[in-house]
Amino acid sequence: MNTLNQFKNFSSNLPQSEMMPVLFMGHGSPMNGIEVNEFSTGWANMAKSIPQPSAVLVVSAHWFTRGTKITAMDFPPTIHDFGGFPQALFDVQYPAPGNPTLAKEAGDLVTSTIVELNHDWGLDHGAWTVIKHMYPNADIPVLQLSIDYTKGAQYHYNLAKEISSLRKKGVLILGSGNMVHNLRMISWEMINGGGYDWALEANDKFKSAIIHKDHQSLINFEQMGGDVRLAIPTPEHYLPLMYTLGLQGDEEEALLFNDKAVGGSLTMTSVRVG
């Protein structure tokens, strides 16, 4: 059986498995995609600590759309959605297969909205820069689910719950963004580590709420204070966290890793649930 046909045969007949963990990855600079550093090493080590997934479904901050879409092509292209970086970064290809059958199955699970099967996107840097360190052989199907920019945090939190059954079929659902993400206030003097007071205070609020399962405060993040408003000037990098939290079971705890501020106004803090 060739590789393409093997992945096409993913279907709802897959045996039920133990519940896959759920992840939120602070992805930071695209350069993390080609650098071996504390963050990329953290992603690689996390992959080694969890079961091998049957597929990865990524909710990336960099696919912000009107309506909800899911990639449904056999081989999603590697998207270099950035500028001003070394040519070596643009040369990277991550040739993981897609899975149209899984895309349709995931879309059919969602009843609150119509999920469009998309053949035009691919794997943006919120997806491949992280996953290439986790699964460097590119032998696991990867799909992306877009973020509907017309909807608020509660909507995305609720939508995540509709796809929770995929976890029992070995699908790793991964949100990719940054809890604190204010590029307009970045400090190049602190690019290797360090955060403004407001960034650290906001991140501490987020971490405390995550550990204590205070999801409602995180959903209503606009009400968490001025430091949080600075941390989230626009919501696209924060909203992937809503998917991770929405998938958290009542008995599941959260583990924090890669917990570091960089550039003054970014945090790489990542979360494992389950």
Automatic annotation (TrEMBL):
Keyword match Oxidoreductase: yes
Entries under InterPro entries matching the protein: Extradiol_dOase_DODA, Xdiol_dOase_suB
Gene3D superfamilies assigned to the protein according to its UniProt record, in alphabetical order: LigB-like (3.40.830.10)
Cofactor or coenzyme needed: Zn(2+)
The keyword Oxidoreductase is assigned to this record: yes
Catalytic activity, EC: 1.13.11.29
Source organism superkingdom: Bacteria
Residue ranges the record marks as coiled coil: none
Record key words, sorted: Dioxygenase, Metal-binding, Oxidoreductase, Zinc
GO molecular function: stizolobate synthase activity
Domain called Extradiol ring-cleavage dioxygenase class III enzyme subunit B: residue spans: 36-250
SUPFAM superfamilies hit by this protein: LigB-like
One Pfam family in the UniProt entry: LigB
Family statement drawn from the similarity comment of this UniProt entry: Belongs to the DODA-type extradiol aromatic ring-opening dioxygenase family.
Descriptive protein name: 4,5-DOPA dioxygenase extradiol
